[in-house]
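Hey L., structure's done. Input below.
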Amino acid sequence: MKSLLRDTAISATAPSPSAIALCAFTLWVDHGRPKNTNEAIWLEAEKQLIARKA
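Output:
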């Protein structure tokens, strides 16, 4: 039961994939559309969105 509650709490605070995608696209454009940065920009977007919710 504790695991279920913990997983629910984590998912409640995690940004949606569509929110991350929008933020990542904005970051990618702002950085000049660099090649081969998909994962790094996605993680940065996720980090920024989590920080906004905190």
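The first helix runs from residue 2 to 13. The chain has a mean pLDDT of 85.

-- N.
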